[in-house]
Amino acid sequence: MAQEIKLRKAEIEDRDIIWNILQQAIERRRKDGSTQWQEGYPNLGTVESDIAKGFGYVMTVNGEISVYVALILNDEPAYSTIEGAWLSNGEFVVVHRVAVDEKFAGQGMVKILFDHIEEFTRSHGIQSIKVDTNYDNIPMLKILENKGYSYCGEVVLAGGVRKAFEKIIF
Predict the structure, then answer these.
(1) Which Gene3D superfamilies does its entry note (predicted)?
(2) Neighbouring C-beta atoms of residue 120, cutoff 10 Å
């Protein structure tokens, strides 16, 4: 049977599920030996803020939340200072806080998520997608490479240096 996969805005009722998924991801990063997400960020307040501001999105598989992501339009102060250069200066979608539920790990959910983010960006007439990740987040680095994102340089975010990427949609 075909799976029905959708991207939708997160609602406050999703908060506890999202927080559980983020806690799983934080623990996965720790087990991988990463410093990313190990200093109390993201936290439940981050989730509540994302939802309140309309940034929080969930990807569902047959109605069950599988992935959480924050999509922010044109606003990431850390991106104004890049050691390197962005590909564009137009409108952009920022991708933050990608986390996959353990039940869906290893099923290519983040690749599918990025397809949905590209469709979201295209449907809103936005020029590009910008994203950053930790140097040691090998799975995300591979996905960005496979999805055609260009390495643009480094940004400082949440006290750490991150690799920054962009993909032009229009």
Answers:
(1) 3.40.630.30
(2) 16
Angle at 53 (CA atoms; ends 13, 159), nearest 5 degrees: 105
Give bridge partners of residue 58 from the DSSP assignment. Answer: 8, 68
Burial of 165 (0-12, 13-18, 19+ CB in 10 A): buried
Per-residue pLDDT tens digits for 70-110: 999 999 999 999 999 999 999 999 999 999 999 999 999 99
Closest by CA to 55, choosing from 11, 23, 92, 109, is 11
pTM > 0.85: yes
Res. 1: pLDDT tops 70: no
Edge to edge, the sheet with strand 64-73 lists 5-9, 56-61, 64-73, 92-100, 128-133, 160-168, 150-157, 83-84
Q: Give burial (CB, 10 Å; 0-12/13-18/19+) of 169.
A: buried
Q: What residues form DSSP beta bridges with 154?
A: 83, 163
Burial state string for 87-99 with b = 16 or more CB within 10 A and e = fewer than 16: bbeeebbbbbbbb
What is the per-residue pLDDT across 105-118, written as a single tens digit (0 to 9) for each? 999 999 999 999 99
